[in-house]
Amino acid sequence: GGRNIVLATGSAEENPSSKNLNIKWIFSTSFTQNEFDAFAIAQPWRNGSTIKLITVARLSFEKNIIACIDALPTMLQQGYDAQLLIVGDGIDRLRLENQTRLLNLDSKVKFLGNVDHNEVLETLSQSHIFVFPTQVKEGFPKALLEAMAVGLPVVASSVSVIPYLLGKCQCGMLLNKPDAENLAEAVLQMIANPQQMKRMGDNARKAAEGYTLEKWGEQIRHELESAWGTKLRKHQPGTTAK
Questions:
Q1: pLDDT digits (tens, 9 = 90+) for 30-52
Q2: CA torsion through residues 56, 61, 139, 133, sign
Q3: How many whole angstroms separate alpha carbon 192 and alpha carbon 197?
């Protein structure tokens, strides 16, 4: 009928464009319902044990991984045994490794590099808090959603979809400023209340189930059917979609 539909990756209370209401939000995801059901679930942190922080990102300046490294000394000075796992690779890796050595954190920071998807999920499930102090506008970061899917509470920058996502499910804390001081403060505040941290992880897991590939397909179908005023034939497995 001459009506084009554009889906923009992200989410917010308002439409992506005030000038064109045919542009709709769509989330981004990487897992099916069956995969979600099979994920190993992260175990809640217990006071007195090592607190394992993890971040998954491209190692570039704008992803601000250095704030995660620089936040560790504050946690250690407060008497917590903290460890940081960094999953990913990129042009900023050498600078991050040098900063780790400069702060004498070689035994506390582990660079895992690029690993396959299953190993990313397994490593997430063995951690306690997902940290994401990005300085760049994100669409709908899959790494954050995967961390939520295994039940991790989140500490992240207040950019793009992240405030909407975390605020909606009450599954993490937002950084007023994505620097080491604020990141350390947020993590310390979170681990000061292990029961609340567990609830955040449980909330994250529940919220993530609404973002499977099946739900993604349903949302696209809904938007197209609403705009075109017609019912679309459902694709049957093993047939060619038309």
A1: 999 999 999 999 999 999 999 99
A2: positive
A3: 9
pTM for this entry: 0.92
29 with 13: CB under 8 angstroms? no
Helix (H) or strand (E) holding 7: strand 6-9
CB-CB contact of 39 with 149 (8 Å): yes
Beta strands in 164-242 (DSSP E): 172-175
Q: What is the C-alpha to C-alpha distance for residues 153 and 156, in angstroms, rounded to an integer?
A: 10
Q: Which residue has the tokens 């000394």?
A: 73
Q: Are 143 and 56 in contact (CB under 8 A)?
A: yes
DSSP string, 148-162: HHTT--EEEES-TTH
Q: Give CA–CA dist 123/114, Å, rounded.
A: 12
Q: Which amino acid is at 230?
A: T
Residue type present at position 3? R
Helix (H) or strand (E) holding 87: strand 82-87
pLDDT, tens only, 114-157: 999 999 999 999 999 999 999 988 888 999 999 999 999 999 99
Cα–Cα distance for residue pair 217/178, rounded to 1 Å: 34
Range list of H helices, 6-62: 33-38
Side-chain-facing half-sphere of 56: CA atoms under 13 Å: 24
Does an H or E element contain 56, and which? strand 51-56
Radius of gyration, CA atoms only, the chain: 19
Residues 196, 84: Cα–Cα separation, whole Å:
21
Q: How far apart are CA 67 and CA 166, in angstroms?
A: 20
